[in-house]
Design brief:
alpha+beta; 14% strand; two-stranded antiparallel ribbon; 3-stranded antiparallel beta sheet; 52% helix
Length: 190
């Protein structure tokens, strides 16, 4: 069965596919997408990790204040640094160093992975080894300049929050009246 982004292969739909269906074990993908939105008007297409780290860390730290659960794994060294920063236990400089060291370990490689394969439309190229960052592609700039750009940014933010709230266990209770006891009772609904 064809995916919607294959039926209408626009850059906007490829971006949506990444945000909606991309490989996702932590909220890093959303923070990276939001960071790219923030960097869209920079004069150079090469985004150094030095420039990316503060923006990326800001998005992660902000979302940690809303919900501490940001990943499926029980622990994350990088998220622990962000939590320490939010509690004023480490400096901004220490957070940025931790971000450059740990924050991008998997997200840059996994960003374009949808349904367990990389999509054809790349929004950036990994140049960490050769140039110390990522290079934004023409596909990214086409999306950033499109009329739907604002909506895509809002969709990413919504998906970011949905990711967080999907991780919260919901307890559903069943209310019932027990006439023999003349009581309203509450029971976990299984």
């Amino acid at each position: 069965m064809s995916k919607f982004y294959e039926l209408n292969p626009s850059n906007e739909n490829y971006w949506r596919a990444i945000i909606l269906f991309g490989r996702n074990v932590a909220s890093y993908k959303f923070a990276l997408a939001k960071s790219l939105y923030d960097l869209r008007k920079q004069p150079n297409d090469l985004v150094s990790l030095e420039d990316l780290a503060p923006i990326f860390a800001g998005h992660i730290c902000q979302h940690l204040t809303t919900n501490d659960k940001q990943a499926t794994s029980p622990s994350s060294k990088y998220l622990d640094f962000c939590r320490q920063y939010n509690r004023n236990e480490i400096s901004h400089g220490e957070l940025i160093e931790a971000t450059k060291r740990f924050g991008f370990n998997n997200v840059i490689d996994a960003f374009h992975n949808v349904h367990n394969k990389d999509i054809d439309n790349r929004f950036f190229y990994d140049e960490r080894k050769t140039n110390g960052g990522i290079r934004l592609s023409d596909n990214f700039y086409q999306v950033a300049e499109s009329p739907s750009f604002y909506d895509l940014n809002q969709e990413t933010e919504s998906r970011f929050f949905l990711h967080i709230f999907m991780r919260i266990k919901v307890l559903v209770l069943k209310l019932f009246y027990a006439p023999s006891a003349n009581k309203l009772c509450v029971h976990p609904n299984s």
